[in-house]
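hey can u check if this looks right to u? its 434 residues, i copy pasted from the old doc so theres a chance i mangled smth
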Amino acid sequence: MRGQRPGKRCSEQGSVLVVTLFVCTMFGLFLGAYFYLARQQNNLVQRSQGWNGAIAVAEAGVEEALAQLNPGASVLMSWGGALSGMNFSANNWGNPQPGGFYGPQIRTLPSGSVTSSYSVVYTTDTLPIIYSTGYVTIPALSATFSRTVRVTTTNVPLFSAGLVGINGIDFNGANITTDSTNLLYPSLTQGTNGDIATLNGVVNVNSATVNGTVYLGPTATNSLKSAGVVTGGVSNDFNVEFESVVLPQGTSGWVPPNSGTTTFGTNTYQYAFGPGTPNPSLTNDVHMGGGTLNGVNFYVGTNTHVRLLITGNASPSDIKVAGAGTNAGQLTIYMDGPTFKLAGNQTVDGGGTAQNVSYYGTTNNTSAQFTGNAAFVGTIYAPQANLTLGGGGAFWGAIVGNTITMSGNGIFHFDESLVGSGAQRFIASSWQEL
């Protein structure tokens, strides 16, 4: 048998080698292209994550600025006032810069393999404008992504409805009524702005007459018996945040006042402040244990602003604020004890104007009781307190509490003069990326 010629075998082997080299080359090219595309895709993913992350970081800066502007319900600025109602330089924000802004605050955030930070300022305008820039650095790309947002603010009233029970309202009396009036112009007829609201609970209107609207949060419900009346109908879009009360700075240095009686009308007041009254304490920032106030009268004269910190349970006999209009006195109560109570014919009277008495209940204040014929002219903001309004008493002003129970023949008048005045809080009104 004759063997195959060597030249032919070499030619076949060479062809196999060429094909093998070609296949390996193409495989290498395809593999290289695959790795290149995978790397490019990974880079694009990281760039996308960095780009999207920068806006989230910028929003974190906006949140810090809003937290600085809203330090707590009791120290928020008044409607339309200059930036003087609180310490805007606190928390290391510093004094206003020549450009008319506070800050910047620069924060670095933990975020794994990337570095995230933001720089935020807000302007000295009456309604501050917030500028926040978020930065995300990705070491693998040697790239830093930044995005800047501009957020304008507006201020909304602390009292978004006349009577607010965050976790429920229960009207279980025979002739309960809510309406509105204007204590600055008492000759005006009673109005239909006696709105009531709950964020999370149940509004038991029962047989009461609500001269206003019932506002309900997303999970809230209401109950209305056949004899009940709600003139303004029911709205299901109530969605408000209720900040806890923060005591003003320096309350640890407030001291008890010495008693100095004065006579106003037929009452003698053991603690009296203002023109023509004894004020031996030489300060209008006072701290009193709850028991010290029990059964006594407390008087604030014209053109006088008293801030009263109460610790412990308190049941005063009569609190009077004198004057009217721009000459009226003002009393701000910080209730840091568990229970505040008015019974019988005891009263808190803001000189006929609800703006002149502001009651702020801290997280320690869990109860406020008004029984018998007790009357209150002022505002109450106590988001952790359960409020009871019983008997034949009356309330003029505005209330925010955890729950509110009205019984007997109680009546609630929302003071329309509170609209556009009093404590406010800032919220974002517009958002724009620059």
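DSSP finds two helices and 30 strands in the chain.
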